[in-house]
Amino acid sequence: MNKNFKLRAAQIFTLLHARYPLPVTMLDWKNPWELLVATVLAAQCTDARVNMVTPEFFRRWPGPEDLSVAPLAEVEDVVHSTGFFRQKAKNLIASAKRVLEAYSGEVPDTMTDLLTLPGVARKTANIVLSNALGRHEGIAVDTHVRRLSFRLGLTTSTNPTIIERDMMQLFPREQWGDINHLLVLHGRDTCPARKPRCPNCILTNLCPKHGLP
After folding, report:
1. Is the Cβ–Cβ distance between 139 and 101 less than 8 Å?
2. Exactly one of 28, 47, 123, 209 is catalytic; which is it?
3. 6 catalytic, yes or no?
4. Which end of the chain is more exposed for a tag (fewer CB within 10 A), N or C?
5. Is the CB of residue 137 less than 8 Å from the CB of residue 126?
6. pLDDT average, residue stretch 169-188
């Protein structure tokens, strides 16, 4: 990786971290299982909506043992407003069963094992690992990271797999969890998909504005 790219990545991280000194997920959670569920529900859904759903979800089914025997229709009803509710409910119940059967009721702490859970791909696994388990095995590439990494010239790809690989080469491992949050926060605050507020952006002098007219 070109040293100039790494230098610019470091500058971007420093500026964003100064702007958002406590980069954390906006999802509400108390333990790895709750974060796993919330992250699965957050697919194609806002964090704010998920945070409205999870209190009732965890009141009914606090952990994988409870969820593993939950009636599918009831779970669908509770998560309905998050979208794709049938698949999400099915995957969560199946994940609860696998966590019980294969991992003694504990959320697994490796990428390989997390990816065996139904409905869990690398993005979800990375979020759970870095935020709840303190392990940095990759960088979660959601819609904000995908958009901003390209716009900022941190990657030339729009493929999440390639983006993650490129970003992992630019940022040191200890920053992999934070860079996801920083880009998400900046994407929401200043750099949305449409009409980014470039004149007010702290990164404007570093940003090549790829993909913008």
Report:
1. no
2. 123
3. no
4. C
5. yes
6. 96
